[in-house]
Amino acid sequence: MASDSPLWPLLSEAPTAEDLARCVHCGLCLSSCPTYIVTGLEVESPRGRIHMAKLVNEGRSELTPAIQQHWELCLQCRACEAVCPSGVPYGRIQEHARAQLDHAAPKQRGQRRVRKFLLRNVIARPRVLAAAMAPARWYANSFARRLARRSGLLRGRLGAMESQLPRNVGRPYRPANTASPSAAATDETSSGVLFTGCVMGELFGNVHRATERVYARAGIDLRATPGQGCCGALHAHDGDLEFARKLARKNIAALETTTGPIVVNSAGCGAAMKEYGDLLSGDPKWASRAAAFAVRVKDSSELLNDFPGGSFEGRVAYQDACHLAHAQRIREQPRTLLGTLAGCSLVETPGADVCCGAAGIYSLVQSEMSGVLRQRKADQFAAARPDVVVTANPGCHLQYEAAVRQAGIPARVMHLMEVLDEAASSNSQQQD
Amino acid sequence: MPTRREVVAALAEAVGPANVMWRPEDLAVYEFDGTIERSTPHAVALPANAAETAAVVRACNRLGVPVTPRGAGTGLSGGSVPARRGVVISTARMRSILEIDPVDRIAIVEPGVPNLDLSKAAAPYGLFYAPDPSSQQACTIGGNVAENAGGPHCLALGVTQNHVLGIEVVTASGELTWLGGRVPDALGFDLRGAFIGSEGTLGIATKVIVRLVPSPASVITLLAVFDSVQQASETVSAIISAGMIPAAMEMMDRLCLQAAEAGFQCGYPPDAGAVLLVELDGLPDIIDGQAATVRAECLERGAKEVRLASGQREREMLWKGRKGAIPALGRLAPNYYILDGVVPRSKLVEVMETVSTVSERFDIPIANVFHAGDGNLHPLVLFDERTPGAKSRVLEAGGEIMRACVDAGGALSGEHGIGAEKRMFMPWLYNETDIENMARLRTVFGNTGDFNPCKLLPTGTGCGEMAHQAAAIAAAGPDAYV
Ligand SMILES: Cc1cc2nc3c(=O)[nH]c(=O)nc-3n(C[C@H](O)[C@H](O)[C@H](O)COP(=O)(O)OP(=O)(O)OC[C@H]3O[C@@H](n4cnc5c(N)ncnc54)[C@H](O)[C@@H]3O)c2cc1C
Ligand code: SF4
Ligand code: SF4
After folding, report:
1. A69, B207, B334, B455 — which has fewest CB within 10 A?
2. What angle do CA B22, B28, B29 make, to 5 degrees?
């Protein structure tokens, strides 16, 4: 069987031998990997998944259905990457592994094709997405939802999806909707761009508005410059690197003429955009533009040193979004911000930085493992009984809505920016 | 030899089909541990408890298939690599902490519990599990027992042997038995003691009763920066001679510092020749005085700087770098061959010099990070296994270093075990009778040579796949060293 030459279906997008050789198979990442924690199988561990890529790269194995299955069960949460002493770029390896599946999956090609079509033609197209989300938005706030809940119709996968919908979906927030940039704010320290994304803008318009207000209080004027769109993270994670690059180029073109930071309140988007330089490194025309863009990208928790604070009563459980803690290595800032709020008592739940199982489209395509991880969160919440669960990513937000319901506690799920916004406004009311 | 189909069927009967792996690409993931040894098993079984473990062992014995126990596969001597293929028994489904008794200060755990998880679970009671291998976030208590694992903080508190009271074992013959128990037992043969460090050759631990110790009242961590490994080595003996045993005393050389700093930004001076990381714990008044002595000793021997970690966070960062230093070397080279020699502290300077001469002569970089207080060296020979001939040269260089340790009156392994890698060196330390006696002990537990074969003892046949140590032996000098 061994042929010595790589057996990748799409050599041009293959994980590189150099990236793979970084793994010295020490095994230290095992205990951080959610799928290994759940299954105890090394085939569902980071070291195992890397080794499978090595097998294909060394011509020791074809890309088999078993390998596909193990890679697809990976959440791409990158907890392994964050703990790896050797600096193995696991996220990149896995994206290129997925690119192989995207090109020639040994099984479930039909399902993959449908998914690719939806990701390209719904998620990445603002108008189509808006139309697709409209019923969900109507339903989330409706009487029909209460009826449906009581009817017992919401079982199985449908029920799982339903329970993820937020309790209150605000007006959408789209770049074109916003007023033109305020004339006063033009210098780099006092203004920036708000990145609006795809699903974020449709289902979490409230979070965008909260972010604007919080940044205004910190003295930074954010504008949602038109022309920007989906960041491409979901596409890259699914192996559609070609399309992810296309979306990256679109965002770069739209925003590179602006100045100041590009503020992102969705951890997944932020992580992807901070890596645009890497994504486009093979494209001579765009590589340097992408690198210049990437350094401007900031998570919304990163620039709030001047946020005046406020008060927020209650027990708050902050849950690390994987792509914030593991991909962007941001753990302290959100906790510090919450810690400054009067009345806010932070409760650290065990496994706060272990993936909740949302993981982009993972909760839909790997609903079983996703459900196990959601249940673990629910158990933690039931034990810790927080008043508020705080997160920084839309997918996690939806997953926590469901987990809180599963836990049977009345906790609210909020984005960090919503908490800060509420805290600050309660403060200004008191001062009035 | 039975067919794979027969083996898999028998295993499935013992643990259920979902808990048996047999596809080649799945098995390949179990072909290594943290070393450069490789060998793919015929099948992997994951029992859920002692009874299932016993059933697996008996099935394998019946079919005449070799067995290799496996924890997290972080081992550094090839111990869980299935030398003669056969069946790997993974403890990864036995991961419950069954009991923590804060009054008796013991815990009962299943073998697959990661070391650090136990300390985390004991923390609310003000207790922790003392042996803290640098791999503690992942390595299992079962693997620790099998290797008699140590760690930075074992200098004052002792290694696994000192902290395990009882072990429930499925012996190599498939019988379930307890060795030791909840309380220390001084009567009769200490079979518990014999099992600890037996490297998975006597049986499989299925429950472990460990001692927990109180967290220290206060801690001081110092980082002393030196120009050379020699200065740092001299300081180690000086500190001990000054009449104290620090909680931990670790050394890192320049290569390790650079790799760890790149990995963790932990605040190491990357241009230093070596650092000593010294930790003192106990009552605040006492350790303040000790810290002053340590500082003075360091400065006297040429330390450029002695830094006191200012808070919990800085302390954690200093330790994070140390604990990740070995795999961080993956940043400098795709492979490393790690040695584990022990030398008397008085010979530290001399042996470290030999290490650097070997590195020069072979023209291969060798990094050093080790438990200096115990004289437990970890020279890491860096290489790229894809370069033709590299592996055999590296093993040769390793052999010379091992020889130097033994010549200095030391031992082949401080904590990683003999495993597959160093068993050929055993005759340097033990004569035929010694080795024969050890082999006899194995048979008492029912090991007829098929239970974790080709490990620990230099006897056994059919170990060809992992026999590249032979080359190193040939190079490092002839015959037995007794
Ligand atoms: C980065 C790094 C740093 C390390 N630092 C240290 C250190 O500071 N100190 C130290 O001592 N070690 C250290 N090690 C080595 C290793 O982590 C230890 O030897 C550890 O005890 C192995 O545990 P494991 O669960 O990974 O066992 P494995 O590697 O899976 O197995 C090790 C041996 O134990 C046997 N075994 C496993 N489980 C059982 C069981 N339940 N019953 C019987 N036998 C069993 C196996 O057959 C094998 O022989 C380090 C390793 C790495 C990668
Ligand atoms: S990915 Fe990193 S932590 Fe995991 S086995 Fe490889 S080198 Fe070790
Ligand atoms: S990305 Fe997450 S799920 Fe995937 S291997 Fe790493 S830790 Fe495991």
Report:
1. A69
2. 100
Q: Which residue of B has its CA nearest to A58?
A: B386
Which pLDDT score is estimated for B371?
94
- Compute the distance between CA of residue B394 and CA of residue B413 in angstroms, rounded to an integer: 18
Note whether B22 and B8 are within 8 A (CB). Answer: yes
Neighbours of A253 (CB within 10 A): 14
Query: Which of B278, B299, B329 is a domain's end point?
Result: B329
DSSP B478: S
Quick check: B72 pLDDT over 80? Answer: yes
CB distance A370 to ligand 3 below 6 Å: no
Q: How far apart are CA B202 and CA B170, in angstroms?
A: 9
Residue nearest to atom 7 of ligand 2 (CA): A23
Give the pLDDT of residue A429.
65
Residue of minimum CA distance from atom 4 in ligand 3? A74
Contact call for residues A39 and B112 (beta carbons, < 8 A): no
Is B431 among the domain residues? no
Least confident of A183-187, B31-35, B277-281: A183-187
The HSE-up count of residue B25 (CA atoms within 13 Å, CB side) is 26
* Cα separations in angstroms, A261 against A53, A205, B299: 37, 20, 47
Query: What's the CATH number where B280 sits?
Result: 3.30.70.2190
Give domain status of residue B468, yes or no: no
The parent domain of residue B284 ranges over 218-329
Asked if residue B304 lies in contact with residue B226, where contact means CB atoms within 8 angstroms, the answer is: yes
Q: What's the mean pLDDT in B24-44?
A: 94
> Does residue A311 contact residue A386 with C-beta atoms inside 8 Å?
no
Counting ligand 3 atoms within 8 A of each CB, the residue from A33, A38, A52, A93 with the most, and so the one to mutate, is A33
Residue B315 CB partners (closer than 8 Å, separation 6+): B219, B221, B309
Question: How far is B108 from B114, CA to CA, in rounded Å?
Answer: 13
Domain final residue, candidates B167, B183, B214: B214
Most A CBs within 10 Å, among B15, B21, B23, B29, to test the A interface: B29
- Backbone φ and ψ of A317, nearest 5°: -105, 105
How would you classify the pairing of strands A388-391 and A311-318?
Answer: parallel
Record the tokens describing residue B25, joined without a space: 């690409």
Helix (H, G, I), strand (E, B) or coil at B29: helix
Q: Is A10 exposed, middle or buried (0-12, 13-18, 19+ CB in 10 A)?
A: middle
Closest to A265 measured CA to CA, from A60, A414, A427, A110: A414
pTM above 0.90, yes or no: yes
Note whether B197 and B142 are within 8 A (CB). Answer: no
Say yes or no to pLDDT of A166 above 80. no
DSSP count for chain A of H helices, then E strands: 23, 8
Tell me the C-alpha distance between A66 and B16, whole Å: 19
CA distance A56 to A48: 13
What is the band of A153 on the pLDDT scale with cuts at 50, 70, 90?
A: low
Structural contact between residues B81 and B39, judged by C-beta atoms closer than 8 angstroms = yes
Q: Is residue B20 part of a domain?
A: yes
Domains parsed from chain A with CATH numbers: 11-107 (1.10.1060.10), 175-299 (1.20.1050), 311-431 (3.40.50.10700)
Query: Does the beta-carbon distance from A64 to B112 stay under 8 Å?
Result: no
**pLDDT tens, residue by residue, A63-109:** 999 999 999 999 999 999 999 999 999 999 999 999 999 999 999 99
Is the confidence at residue A1, as pLDDT, over 50? no
Q: Pairing between strand B127-128 and B213-214?
A: antiparallel
| B103, part of any domain | yes
Query: Count of domains in chain B?
Result: 4
Half-sphere exposure of B323 (CA within 13 A, CB side): 23
B321 lines ligand 1 (CB under 6 A): no
Q: Are B33 and B80 in the same domain? A: yes
How far is Cα A111 from Cα A107, in angstroms, rounded to an integer? 9
